[in-house]
Specification:
Blueprint lengths: L6 E4 L23 H18 L3 E3 L7 H12 L5 E6 L1 E3 L11 E3 L3 H14 L4 E9 L9 H8 L7 E6 L4 H9 L2 E2 L2 E2 L3 E5 L8 H9 L3 E5 L6 H4 L3 H9 L4 H10 L6 E4 L4 H8 L8 H8 L5 H9 L5
Parallel strand pairs: 1-2, 1-12, 2-3, 3-6, 6-7, 7-10, 10-11, 11-12
Antiparallel strand pairs: 4-5, 8-9
Amino acid sequence: MNAIHRLGIGLAALGRPAYINVGRADEMPPGRSVEQMREATWDVLDTAYARGVRWVDAARSYGRAEEFLGGWLTSRRPADVTVSSKWGYTYVGEWKTDAPVHEVKEHSLGRYRTQYEESRALLDGYLSVYQVHSLTEESPLFQDVGLQAAVAEAAADGVRVGFSTSGPGQADTIRRAVALEVSGQRLFSTVQSTWNVLETSAEEALREAHDAGMHVLLKEVLANGRLATQPPAGMQNVAARNLVQPDALALAAALSRPWADTVLIGAVSTAQLGANLVAAEVSLDEEDLEALADLSVAPEVYWAERSVLPWS
């Protein structure tokens, strides 16, 4: 498969005025109004589609991301785009960059039913994959058989069921979720997890999921922008050797994983997107991959550092 067809667009940083990505502010519309953010979203989607990207990922908690995406889908009517979204968080930021709280998590049957209908309405029949947002081992879903059964019902609508993960326990969550069954059938068919050259702790579990037939998506491949704006020295050296920028290198490292079916890009402008898409042309050798492997840190360290990133 052409590498660019393994790339997808994630709308976490485009559907709301504030997010934790580093290096995002200068690429954003100056006023960050709803109309400006809608236009920026459509520009990125138009450019990505023209370049061959065919997967778009959203969530109920990404502000107006589903609304923006739904409008784009209705306008453009692409026949070959896979749309995934997520339920479990509610956006409460009221379109303010300085909101005290931006999103609230709740994995309950009521929240699922409400958000599933909201997502289906906004995405106008294009919803292909619906994921539990940031599943952890503490999630009530693992004990709530009623919720599990309701989630499984989405298959009757032709929607694949998946989950995303976050935090230092990703590997354990993935293995537990992959084994979850409803009426003798595996509940989930997709998994979306954080993987980047700093945070590789879920790699083996994701490889196992892929080998079990699940579609694996990678998110936060640029470590919320840190690898693009503050790359470690070792990464800068590999980037220089390959004559590319660190953002493209970080994405190329993800694409080098054969078990990674889709690698999500969180670009907020066509300029960022163009720089990111260079990754599809990068071929890393064993020396490069070994140097990048040395950059990984303990997951507890990585997630502690991520937890203090400001919304801006």
